[in-house]
Amino acid sequence: MGSIQPSNDIPEVDVLLVGAGFGSYTVLNRLRKLGLNCKVYEKGSKSGGIWYWNCYPGARVDSATPIYQIFDKELWEDFTFTERYPGQKELRRYFDYVDKKWNLSKDVVFDKHVDGATFDTSRNQWLVECSDDTQVYCRWFIPCLGFASKKYTPPVEGLGNFKGEIYHTAVWPQHDVNVRGKRVAQIGTGASGIQVLQTIGPKVKHLTVFQRTPNLCLPMNQQKLNPEEEEKKKKNGWYQQEIEKTRNTFAGFTYTFVDKNTFDDTPEERERFYQELIDDGGFRFWLNGYKDIFTNQEANNEAYKFWRKTVLKRIPDPKKQALLAPEVPPHPFGTKRPCLEQNVYEVFSLPHVDIIDINENPIVEVTSKGLRTKEGEIEADILILATGFDSVTGSLAQLNIRGLDGKTIAEHWKDGTRTSFGIAMANFPNMLFLYGPQAPTGFSNGPTSAHYQSEWVERTLKDLMAKGVTYFEARKEAEDQWCKRLSDVWDASLFPLAKSWYQGANIPGRKVEPLNWAGGFPEYLELLDKSCENNYQDWIVA
Ligand code: N01
Fold first, then answer.
1. Is residue 29 situated within a structural domain?
2. Positions of the chain with pLDDT lower than 70, given as ranges
3. Where in this chain does the record put each FAD/NAD(P)-binding domain (predicted)?
């Protein structure tokens, strides 16, 4: 039992979920209906998961309505989003609505930080420890931490010397930050960085963006939604149909690749098709195009060339053109997650916005007044770190969860991440995690992952309980096979060619390895279901 000293007064629940976002709320509702006594522990003060923490200016989702919500008719019938891509404030309002409708708060404890857990083999239960020194026993331990709950700050020399304001996008203050008329320096141009800079750019006195890799952004094509039209679409079955489509697409969206390779079409047909995808907006150009985009470099180059042509038209300055849409692609298109933009190339083109390519002109140090680069000092009132996360594995590995052998998850993953079907680990019985490593996670629409993984958890726990099973552990051989399959799929694609967080390459010194299942949703769900055939062939049940 490690250092934990259990006592008889420790409360006990059937299920302990960690995190109050899409994953845990989806599964909580299902497991409560099975009659299980569930609790959710959330370190934030409100519901929303990532939408609680992600409150930087311009934070907005990049999955379109109606699939960015819990796939439950009872919920979507009575809540209508006002925009095709809702913003953070509206998403928080949505979570408050879900909370009220399902009376979730009675089972959620906010401001409660789980530190670690140890499995008690005498009871087949986890003993979970919190930072307020409380403990709880649970039969099923289900962390739903998301892939972005551990922020990453690069080790820039002198960060502590800065006398102005510093904000990291991942832990932006919950109150408004006044940027109007200020000189702002921003490091990072991922999805968070792009959203911040396109929002604050027009308001600030001066903005200097430190870019390492250009983000190959796609147009969002945001639209206001008409409530009456949305009501009609709910009644005529469109919402339900859109939601059902997510089961059979690569990334859990409502569309997937067309059954055609890039060079099956003539150049004119290709041009028309690419234009259609771009015009519709969102991720269509990324995930609804030719099926060889991620397997054939030549095909991928065609997509990049078209993308570049559309973007160059929006950037008058040739120097900025070369930085934002270079002739040679920085990586195969879409092998780093593109981001949806609304006006970012116009904002980059404003005269008071400078882009510094840190590959040419590296940051030497942060000073009391700003940042010193190889070429000189840039003064700033505000420094924004939009430098992302220790993505996918960081959320789980930062907790002191110890397996049967006493080793933490981080120790288990010292030589490489290992999971079984991206939902469990050998040595960690009765622990199932949602939206975690080696699942479709980084490639998927969040609520789609939450829905189908929760469905599997509900079905599995219901069956195990009916059979009187109290112990459920991933078989080591199944874990080996899953890791191999995951790598085989990854290595057959162009994804390894980008220094992306998909494979942990965003953090210097980290092992570069596939952290997300790139074989698509339908195959993932089929394999997960198969693992339970023949009386749970890939699991130890007792
Ligand atoms: O983080 P990121 P994010 N010096 O890792 C740069 C989801 N999300 O928070 O590209 C200088 O993508 C780094 O440079 P490079 C979404 O899935 C969704 O933006 O590694 N720069 C990069 O530009 C997203 O993909 C939404 O060369 C450094 C940036 O910092 C994921 O979360 C909104 C550096 C980090 O970008 C992560 O997004 C927000 C250094 N030492 C997030 N180190 C929506 O739904 C890092 N960088 C819209």
1. yes
2. 1-8
3. 14-237
Residue 433 lies in a domain: yes
Domain membership of residue 420 as a residue range: 12-150+391-471+520-541
Report the SS3 class of residue 14.
Answer: strand
pLDDT of residue 7: 57
The confidence score (pLDDT) of residue 54 equals 92
pLDDT score of 67: 98
Ligand 1 — pocket residues by CB below 6 A? 60-62, 148, 154, 169, 187-193, 195, 210, 212-213, 337, 358, 386-389, 501, 506
CA distances from 146 to 19, 48, 348, 364, 437 (A): 8, 11, 31, 33, 9
Eight-class DSSP state of 394: H
The Å distance, Cα 337 to ligand 1 centre, comes to 9
- Establish whether the linkage from the previous residue to 429 is cis, with ω within 30° of 0: no
pLDDT per residue over 110-156, tens digit each?
999 999 999 999 999 999 999 999 999 999 999 999 999 999 999 99
- Three-state secondary structure call for residue 106: helix
Which residue from 302, 280, 249, 321 is spatially nearest to 67, judged by alpha carbons?
Answer: 249
Flag whether 250 is in a domain: no
Spacing, Cα 248 to ligand 1 middle (Å): 28
pLDDT in tens, 249-260: 999 999 999 999
Give the CA distances from residue 358 to residues 205, 361, 524, in Å, rounded to whole numbers and listed in that order. Answer: 22, 5, 39
Q: Which SS3 state, helix, strand or coil, does residue 424 take?
A: strand
Answer yes or no: is 172 within a domain.
no
Pocket test for ligand 1, best of 69, 187, 192 (most atoms within 8 A of CB): 192
What is residue 400's three-state secondary structure?
A: strand
Instruction: Please give the tally of structural domains in the chain.
Output: 1
Cα–Cα distances (Å) from 511 to 135, 153, 443, 495, in that order, read 34, 18, 20, 15
pLDDT recorded at residue 3: 39
